[in-house]
Amino acid sequence: MTTITLVQGDITRQSADAVVNAANSSLLGGGGVDGAIHRRGGPAILAECRRLRASRYGKGLATGRAVATTAGELDARWVIHTVGPVWQGPGSDPSLLASCYRESLRVADELGARTVAFPAISTGVFRWPMEEAARIAVETVRDAETAVEEVTFVLFDERAYEAFAEHVG
Ligand code: ADP
Prior knowledge:
Oligomer: single chain
Bound molecules: adenosine-5'-diphosphate
Strand order of the largest sheet: 1-6-5-2-4-3
Structural class: alpha/beta
Number of domains: 1
Radius of gyration: 14 Å
CATH class: Alpha Beta
Number of helices: 5
Distance between the termini: 14 Å
Helix content: 25-40%
């Protein structure tokens, strides 16, 4: 059983075996969580992302997929980068958002990570409505077959925290 915990705060201050980044497919940085992780984690993370782009991920990381790098100076062993889907309006397919959580946990299992911190993927620049994104996130983690013992959702503000709290009993 995976324990689900909610924290309100900055994911770059969280300590965990693996911290998940709401990346974009370029893997070369962006705003929001991505910018914060690269700022606080230092240049080692970007250097490894560049190596991924130069090797296995020449076209970038596809939406719904996940890949790990060092966590640089973060209080974690790894950053797991995943690319959420952009909200396309009502009827947007939630399966790619669910895939981000599943794939990140699969990568965490490969690494042997026991504790994983997630942000609310796709709810920032990618505009996914918080209430729906929270439901998908919690249900997907709850249903995942994983050896990860604790998943912490690190929510930036009270609105995000409350949305996730609706789904965590
Ligand atoms: P995406 O491009 O997947 O939408 P963003 O990084 O723009 O990703 O936003 C995802 C969510 O993370 C948003 O709810 C945003 O408010 C939140 N967020 C932004 N910075 C941080 C941070 N440092 N720690 C935790 N959550 C953050």
